[in-house]
Amino acid sequence: MAAVRSGDADGAVVPLENSVEGSVNATLDELIRGEQLIIAREILIPVEFALLVRRGTTLEDVATIVTHPVAEAQCRAWLSDNLPKTEVYRAASTASAAAMVANAQHGPDGPYDAAIAANLAADHYRLETLASGIGDDPDAVTRFVQLTRPGAPPAPDRASKTSLVAFIRDDHPGALLEILEQFATRGVNLTRIESRPTGSGLGRYCFAVDCEGHVNDARVGEALLGLRRVCADVRFLGSYPRADGRAPTLSYGTSNAEFAAAADWLASLRDGQIVR
Amino acid sequence: MAAVRSGDADGAVVPLENSVEGSVNATLDELIRGEQLIIAREILIPVEFALLVRRGTTLEDVATIVTHPVAEAQCRAWLSDNLPKTEVYRAASTASAAAMVANAQHGPDGPYDAAIAANLAADHYRLETLASGIGDDPDAVTRFVQLTRPGAPPAPDRASKTSLVAFIRDDHPGALLEILEQFATRGVNLTRIESRPTGSGLGRYCFAVDCEGHVNDARVGEALLGLRRVCADVRFLGSYPRADGRAPTLSYGTSNAEFAAAADWLASLRDGQIVR
Amino acid sequence: MAAVRSGDADGAVVPLENSVEGSVNATLDELIRGEQLIIAREILIPVEFALLVRRGTTLEDVATIVTHPVAEAQCRAWLSDNLPKTEVYRAASTASAAAMVANAQHGPDGPYDAAIAANLAADHYRLETLASGIGDDPDAVTRFVQLTRPGAPPAPDRASKTSLVAFIRDDHPGALLEILEQFATRGVNLTRIESRPTGSGLGRYCFAVDCEGHVNDARVGEALLGLRRVCADVRFLGSYPRADGRAPTLSYGTSNAEFAAAADWLASLRDGQIVR
Amino acid sequence: MAAVRSGDADGAVVPLENSVEGSVNATLDELIRGEQLIIAREILIPVEFALLVRRGTTLEDVATIVTHPVAEAQCRAWLSDNLPKTEVYRAASTASAAAMVANAQHGPDGPYDAAIAANLAADHYRLETLASGIGDDPDAVTRFVQLTRPGAPPAPDRASKTSLVAFIRDDHPGALLEILEQFATRGVNLTRIESRPTGSGLGRYCFAVDCEGHVNDARVGEALLGLRRVCADVRFLGSYPRADGRAPTLSYGTSNAEFAAAADWLASLRDGQIVR
């Protein structure tokens, strides 16, 4: 991200969230606080779970496993078929589980024998893969985003998404509700909302929001205007094609054509050419 | 109103509502259904209650009174001081009460002796005024509006009001809530809402709404746009100075300047000149 | 209504609203302000429009007609077939139109020749019926209610309705929205809402509300509790079977069984028997 | 947490969130997915930032620092006074920054010289503290919670908090809005909301919520009932005293007394003892 900012690179592809472990806070916090970058594209990469061990460990040696609880849940069938007696311990993330095995970190009964983590972790932590593709959720996925320096967003696609960060004005109780209503009143659906601390004390958050549609869409534009007015600050993170290609479900009155017709009508009222 | 429509008159002053008896439905239904007219001005006229009788009746003769229940309530002190033993019967309106006395209509115990009605009713129904100014609510008032043919609304005043009729798209349960949210999201306060049947069956209503602000105000314009998009139809009834001169209470983010700043920001996002 | 209150009658059947002309304010205001009565039943009576004249007038004589604008709209086909050249003038109600013809009241060109009103008006105003059944809306209907002295409401029916009046706490802008949200949060659909002045100045209203369901239903009970807490006052007007027999559409989580299951769950949390 | 569940320990004190880096997802995910535990108490511990180095490094040697961006921001004054020429690189967390220094991990220009992290990290990563108390935000704080096996919650305190996890029924666009409205309608303020993936695909979240008040409070109980009805599942995480002792701001109609009065009124309606 620094290389993109300095101009040394034109873009960077970074992980933003994961259906197993949630947001990648390091990326998110950089997007929220660092010098402005925007998302030009999103990419979904399936997560392949693997059983990773230190060189020399065999399946028979594996008495303890460490992993993130969601990964454990998604590998339950494989575990019960192949390692029914193994104890599973929980780590904060699959990456930290791999690191714990790589470092031979001790659990309650000696060093952990194996980690369940993404395939990619084997290389990074110099571990061996005893088994791969052991998860049973074909939808486990990591969402990467391609970041670029600020510029005009790509043209609206049949299926676009818009990302932004809303900093609430003060921490009054209904602030989040107020933000959500700005979207709901314009018929804009949210696909994700994540709170992050602003750093100025517990209970002070900003909200990272992804919504359906493109900043050039009338309904999205008006929702952004509304946010800008009621929030202390709004940071735009880009409009880009949806990786899953799913077009938004528009409720009545929210298409660009309907916005344009209503704007014509309002102009005529203001001019005194009153029409029904 | 017909004379204004035909061009025989430039304007008409008609009663629209009354703090005692509510909406004047005849006026409201004409505004809703007749050929379009708009409100150029509102005028508040205090309601003076009087005790009206047929010629020759004296205060001592008054054993029964007929009036609207609100008028009765507002004249209770005078009645208890001056006619403590008189029976009071209820009519649908103060005007119909006056008509009942004029026609010597019979109640349970013979013809009604007196009506409590507005001063003006004496002339209209050829009745005599036994006492006037007998109400104890100095705020009792009738709101008249001056109607003109469609044209550009008068320039925004420090304190303006806007009137319209919203025809809901279909009678789904949340339709009224949806209308109110269009105003609330833009910080536009309603001063009045009245449901009227559309004539197409029980449970089918349109809503006559008065709100604070002028159609040229950004927040009012955007609320109108929202209504136009989500409603089957919206009829604009005018923007005009408030008779009581009370300026609107604006919540943060709803002034014209804040709307304009947000619009500039949105334009810059769309152009790729990303700024926080 | 007075006879019911005094005990001289067990019940009274009174008109409450009309799909053509809206609320019958006299009834509504009595229910709102008079000594408490409750609705035990509702009855829908079709409105049959008729052309009413003074004795001796023939169809050929009818050059001017007076009626309410909705009635005119609903008789347009008959008028265009049978009286294509007749001028139609507007009255505040069909009843007042009939009265105007009975009294030979003058319009712009002499006394009105005929009124369009309900069949029943002929007798009341001693008019003759030149034609009946001249409306083309088979759904035109008047809703009557049977009123009784307060008592336990009839048992919940497959399709019940509940009526009440909500007096808002003060006239803050979002008061009506707040009332509607009390219903929406519990999944209770409104079938009607009507504002009436409280009599204490313009801009001060109470709201007469009809909703789906019975006061004994958990979702209706909780909505009433919510209203009672946020309003200055709530007057209950009864729970009674719906005349149209239409059962409510319940969204998820709003049935009595779901309310009871949730209450059991809450009790277990409070007792420390925590269960998911 | 495992020791508490097995009965080997009576309680566990674990970090839940941090005003600098946000939620401790490992704790949160265990609370969401593991066998049920409840929060009996919360404890706030100030975060003291320190400059940590490998043994032997002096302040003059420090050319590169690695830390979390919020920590960097909070130490900006100290850095500009003491190390104005040092490059600061960003890590995903202060703990991982400390680990990177301990492991002499390479950045763009060789191994990082120092980390800014919490004081406590020095011991854990066997680093030396060159300077401590270098942050300028006295409100930087970590929130720990004391967990116990399920049981009746402690008695309501003047200032209580309630924590829960809401699993939305399906991923319809307005699901989060619906959850927030369940709280808002009962006047219950949220102090925190955090989304976590359910593990069943991108875009599928549950929401960890902290609100003001105790499960025994009527308004909190009714909000929980509402959540339970509209959500697929709700997991209760406890009611406990607020560490900051701040009593909730109650809006009208939300005290226990007002709930009780409304319940009495509803009971009387159902019994037919109708009162205003």
Describe the structure.
The structure is a homotetramer of 276-residue chains. Chain A has 276 residues and is α+β, with helices and mostly antiparallel strands. Chain A has 9 helices and 15 strands. Chain A has helices spanning 2-6, 25-33, 69-74, 76-82, 94-102, 121-124, 175-185, 218-230, 256-271, and strands at residues 12-18, 22-23, 38-46, 49-53, 64-67, 87-90, 106-107, 110-111, 114-118, 128-132, 141-148, 160-167, 190-197, 205-212, 233-241. In chain A, the strands form 4 sheets. Chain A has a 5-stranded mixed sheet. In chain A, strands 2-1-11-3 form a 4-stranded antiparallel sheet. In chain A, helix 7 (175-185) packs antiparallel against helix 8. The longest helix of chain A is centred in the C-terminal third of the chain and has 16 residues, at 256-271. The mean pLDDT of chain A is 90. Chains A and D meet through helix 2, helix 3, helix 7 and strand 13 of A and helix 2, helix 3, helix 7 and strand 13 of D.
List keywords for this structure.
homotetramer, alpha+beta, five-stranded mixed β-sheet, four-stranded antiparallel β-sheet, 276 residues
